[in-house]
Amino acid sequence: MFTAIEQGGSDRTEIRNRIVKALSQHAAAEEEVVYPVMTKEEGKSESEHARHEHQRIKEILHDLDGCDPTDTKFSGLLTSLQSEVQHHVQEEETQHLPALRMAIGAERMRELGTAFEKAKKMAPTRPHPHAPDTQPGVSVAGKVAAVADRARDALSPDR
Q1: Rounded to two decimals, what is the model's pTM?
Q2: CA 69 to chain centre
Q3: Which tens digit of pLDDT belongs to each residue from 59-100?
Q4: CA 28/CA 131 separation, integer angstroms
Q5: What is the per-residue pLDDT for 148?
């Protein structure tokens, strides 16, 4: 999606909306399902680091969601977002997830993946940088935000 929007995809608004939705749902599901297990198994500092990165991503997503693709700020926001996401993914794939897999085992990791995918389907479709990112607040706020987001999406002509 980053490549498509950078190359001036046919509908930058639609691609932006897909990026915002996908990353918002991904972040919410990780905060609800994965990070509590990461905190327990890897320690609080690792999950706090990941949450801090998510916070920055949610802030950029929030700004990007409210920015017209023709605005001069749009490209800068997109570049910042891509950089933050690439850094976060690299850390997760090379450090956090392998360490978590070692700590909880392959079977529990598969269960966590299934729970993550289920949570992602129910997660908010827009970023909420001021919402809680730890339990129990993330679950409660996430459910309320998801309902509000879906209603807003249904009423938005460009969603």
Answers
A1: 0.90
A2: 20
A3: 999 999 999 999 999 999 999 999 999 999 999 999 999 999
A4: 10
A5: 92
